[in-house]
Amino acid sequence: MNKTELDLKKLIIEVLCLEDISPDDIDSAAPLFGDGMGLDSIDALELGVAIRLKYAVDLDVDTEEIREHFASVCNLARFVTTSGK
Length: 85
What we know:
Layout: H1 3-15, H2 41-55, H3 65-69, H4 73-83
Helix pairs in contact: 1-2, 1-4
């Protein structure tokens, strides 16, 4: 697990108040929504705001790419790493 993935996992836990899990419990390649972690649209909004503030990235919610970026921690890490200002 790279540093960005670890930081994102910690951010997910903090922002979504997931007190019963640790970063090691989150599979970087597993889906964040649906059958994976089971996050919902409200979680996505909260997480999107936190990522925007922490990493200074622009999230265009009107694109299909946003679904791909939020598909997993791996995808989020790649997006943050390549899009940060």
